[in-house]
Amino acid sequence: MRTVALIRFFLGKGGVGKTTTAAAYSINKALQGKQVLVVSLDPAHNLGDVFEEELGDDPVKIMDNLVAIEVDYDKMIRKHLKDLTEKIKDIYGYLKIFNLDRYVDVLKHSPGIEEQASLEKIIEIIRKYGVGDKAFDIIVFDTPPTGLTLRIMALPTISLIWIERLIKLRLAILERRKTISSITGEQFEVEITGKRLKVPISVKEDPIFKELTKLRDEYNWINQHLTDPHTTAAIMVINPETLPVLEAYRAVEFLKRINVPVTHLIVNKIFELKTIPDQLRPKLEEQEKALALAREKLPGLEVIMIPYLEKEPRGPDMLKKVAEYLSTIP
Amino acid sequence: MVFRKLSSIFDAVISLFKGRSIEYIEIELRELENVFALIVLGSFIGLPSPPSTISLRLLPYMGRELLVMSRVSERLDDMLGEMAGLFDIT
Question: Is B39 touching A (CB cutoff 8 A)?
């Protein structure tokens, strides 16, 4: 019985076909008998449109072995902030300093909150559906356009840098408190609103140190999942045009730096014409140039070419056509 | 008698040294706590801060650091004077 799901991220510039290829890949694996969950993290959802199904926060069955989720962004950010502020209210409640309920609406506009909430959601989904006896075989993430996705994926690494520094600083503080306490032989205390409270002097009793190590464990956990080449793969999707190739190149370089394995390059919507109209000749020359650039800039990735289809691939039957091209992705 | 006097002088010297050494460590501790609060909650005063989850998760436990930070900020006008006093510069 599998205990850890394979995780697949479909990344690329807006409009290249991330959702279509992610959906088609999911169908391919479901047809092979794998239990697949496909999750849309893109705030501008169209996974439901591709499957021609109404999707939401709870898994909806698309076909045998395949369920899909469209993450509700507003709900996700609200939940993320609620979890955080509830804790603050619990402890600061008696102080009556903060009336955080009133600020929750403002907090949702604070910079970086989308990435934070998205990462929390990815963690929640992997915890819920990706590990344990009831884990899916594969979890497929259809991601937002490249910029936001890269910031989400870098967040654990960045957070860990902050946490390590804060832990060092915290240890220096606790060490000095302990030294002073042992010289004076007295307890460390602080007066807050007339109440004298004991101040922690060791790592065992310091809630800040405990919270920092807890955060470190959580981010290490997700970082290990995101960087494990045995379970995780990022799949770049591009069109045969210069800009998506260059963006993919920069994204791959960035992902390498944060150790996220990138395995495949899907070149979607390639013109394959038997007779070439004069009007399309320059376009096809550009396509050849872009393909050559992709081979030069993105060596080492397994390349999958998908032609421009006669009809827009929507609905499970049409997606099966695209799925055939994706059978080499494990 | 002489021995007792010597002993009390000795104790006084020790407590003086203890007091001085604690004074330095206390100031260092205060500054470390102040820096910790500034780093974690720097966004309150426009400093770059860690990802907001880290700040918000630590905030509930930072009563002492917040007090230190506000006390230090009250004395910011005369920080030079305070440092001079610490090192006996007149």
Answer: yes
- Confidence (pTM): 0.82
Structural domain containing residue A189: 6-325
Give the relative orientation of helices A146-184 and A113-125 as an angle to the nearest 10 degrees: 90
Contact criterion met (CB below 8 Å) for A291 and A283:
no
Task: Flag if A116 and B36 touch (Cβ within 8 Å).
Answer: no
The per-residue pLDDT for range B21-40, each reduced to its tens digit, is 788 888 888 888 888 988 88
Q: Count Cβ atoms below 10 Å from residue A19 Cβ, excluding itself.
A: 24
pLDDT digits (tens, 9 = 90+) for A254-290: 999 999 999 999 999 999 888 888 888 888 899 999 9
CATH of the domain at A261: 3.40.50.300
DSSP 8-class letter at B42: G
Domain boundaries, chain B: 25-90
Q: Give the separation between CA A176 and CA A187, rounded to whole angstroms.
A: 13
pLDDT digits (tens, 9 = 90+) for A118-172: 898 899 999 999 988 889 999 999 999 888 899 999 999 999 999 999 999 999 9
Inter-chain touch A91–B58, beta carbons under 8 Å:
no
Q: Kindly provide the b/e burial profile for residues A20-52, where b requires at least 16 CB atoms within 10 angstroms of the residue's own CB.
A: bbbbbbbbbbbbeebbbbbbbbbeebbbbebbe
Contact status, residue A176 vs residue B29, Cβ threshold 8 Å:
yes
* Chain B nearest-CA residue for A119: B53
Number of domains in chain A: 1
B61 contacts in A (CB within 8 Å)?
Answer: 91, 207-208, 211
Question: Measured between alpha carbons, how far is B17 from A256 in angstroms, rounded to an integer?
Answer: 55
Rounded Cα–Cα distance for residues A28 and A34 (Å): 9
* Residue A330, in any domain of the structure: no
Dist. CA A279–CA A168, nearest whole Å: 64
User: Which residue's structure tokens are 């006669």?
Assistant: A310
Q: How many CA atoms lie within 13 A of A197 on its CB side?
A: 14
In a domain, A153, yes or no: yes
